[in-house]
Amino acid sequence: MRRTAIHTIEGTLESLTGLHIGGSQDDLQIGGTDLPVIRHPVTLAPYVPGSSLKGKMRSELEKKLGKFGGQNGEEPCGCALPDCPVCRVFGPHKKTKSELGPTRLLVRDAHLTAGGEIEIKTENVINRKTGGADNFRKQERVAAGSKFHLELKLQIYDLDANFKYGSAAGDKALLAVVQEALKSVEETGLGAGTSRGSGKVRFLDLKLDGKPWQ
């Protein structure tokens, strides 16, 4: 097995609504928020962990391909089949030995480039008997309009030459998988609370190896 290329995908991740990706509650104080956002330990600026974005890309692709929940219905797909786009690009879950080789997609932490203001969103549960609100909690969100630098690395190996996705083959097929996963994140959202108004994002000015990529 030989690595034949590494493609770099760069661009901007923009939050179109408030964005909540949870951080540590170790420093919570009386009167503070119940659900803080994750912050850089030195600058304290919010950021998007690569693991959060990669996990959402993977789960959305699994849903699209009917592989969500894995073989036991509870975990990521780990079938490790040669024609599985999920396992080839994101890695076969828990299968350390397979013929697919290393994980192809590397997702860097997306650091803040603009915005980054923190807003407090209060959530509650409506008591259906009384009509009143119960269980109040405060959640931090990164304000809409904030932007983060996106960087992905896609490794290509010689054993990818015959892999197909749609009408594409080889490295173009792997790139098509990544593109499909990014589009799915745009359609559904990122982070917590996407069903309650949070987490709508879009990817701007995407470039593949320095050239515009759509």
Structural class: alpha+beta
**How many helices in DSSP terms?**
3
Mean pLDDT: 89
The end-to-end span amounts to 30 Å
Instruction: Give the domain tally.
Output: 1
Relative helix content: 10-25%
* Number of DSSP strand runs: 11
**Large-scale geometry:** globular
- At the fold tier of CATH, the topology name is Alpha-Beta Plaits
Order of helices and strands: EEHHEEEEEEEHEE
Assembly type: single chain
Task: Describe the 3D structure.
By secondary structure, the chain is an alpha+beta fold. Helices cover 19% and strands 31% of the residues. It has helices at 50-65, 85-90, 171-188; strands at 3-15, 47-48, 105-107, 110-114, 118-126, 133-142, 147-157, 164-165, 168-169, 201-208, 211-212. Strands 1, 2, 3, 4, 7, 10 and 11 form a seven-stranded antiparallel sheet that branches. Helix 1 (50-65) packs across helix 3. The longest helix is centred in the C-terminal third of the chain and has 18 residues, at 171-188. The two termini are 30 Å apart.
Provide a short characterization of the protein structure.
With 214 residues, the chain is an alpha+beta fold. 19% of the residues lie in helices and 31% in strands.
Question: Keywords for this structure?
Answer:
alpha+beta; 214 residues; 3 helices; Alpha-Beta Plaits; 7-stranded antiparallel sheet
List the helices and strands and how they pair.
Elements: E1 3-15, E2 47-48, H1 50-65, H2 85-90, E3 105-107, E4 110-114, E5 118-126, E6 133-142, E7 147-157, E8 164-165, E9 168-169, H3 171-188, E10 201-208, E11 211-212
Helix pairs in contact: 1-3
